[in-house]
Specification:
Length: 208
């Protein structure tokens, strides 16, 4: 889905239809999760919220705890961008705890980055700084560039709010470098049109 949300739509629509026909909740949950991401990246937050609810329902019906956590993270991410960060914080705290309990490091790291973002939006900058400082290192270790970009950007916002301008600038600059590199590697000018990257590009003064 790197900037090609329109191309993904018919494929996901078919996958969802087939999964529903076969009553395969495991596949359905994954397809709906991807569809949620597609709608989120395209800026359709209402559609993304609806898809997130459906994905969570399918995940719970599948009985797969990993899918349930992924769906919870997706729903909370959309909630943060829809302006209900307080609700998202609570949901993300629960999802991160479950991910830790299952020993799924990738979901744990993703959840902590999303939680950091929700905390920033909720104005809890001190807690966000503490959380995201560790999350930045973890995303570097895991090699998850998109999450590292988000973690660094949100950490910069938190640091700036706390009066730590120099450290904030360092993270802003590194996030910008990573975003430019990711765009070049993808070969897609539309990458920065994704909702998450479009906002970052604007705030980091990157032209799409």
């Amino acid at each position: 889905l790197q900037g090609r949300v329109a191309e993904a739509a018919p494929l996901l629509e078919e996958a969802i239809a087939v999964a529903q026909e076969r009553e395969d909740t495991w596949v359905l949950a994954q397809a709906l999760e991807f569809d949620m991401e597609r709608l989120f990246y395209a800026g359709d937050l209402a559609g993304a919220a609806e898809a997130a609810e459906r994905a969570l329902e399918a995940a719970e019906n599948s009985g797969d705890p990993h899918l349930v956590i992924r769906a919870q993270l997706g729903r909370a991410r959309v909630a943060t961008h829809r302006g209900v960060a307080a609700q998202a914080v609570s949901a993300l705290e629960s999802a991160v705890s479950e991910a830790k309990g299952l020993g799924v490091r990738a979901l744990d790291i993703e959840g902590r980055v999303l939680l950091g973002t929700a905390l920033v939006v909720a104005g809890q900058h001190q807690r966000a700084r503490d959380l995201l400082t560790v999350a930045v290192r973890d995303t570097e270790d895991m090699g998850t560039v998109p999450l590292q970009i988000e973690a660094r950007h949100q950490l910069a916002v938190a640091l700036k709010a706390l009066g730590e301008a120099t450290a904030a600038a360092e993270h802003h600059n590194r996030a910008a470098e990573l975003l430019i590199e990711m765009q070049r590697e993808s070969g897609s000018e539309s990458l920065l049109e994704r909702t998450d990257f479009r906002d970052l590009a604007s705030q980091l003064s990157i032209d799409s």
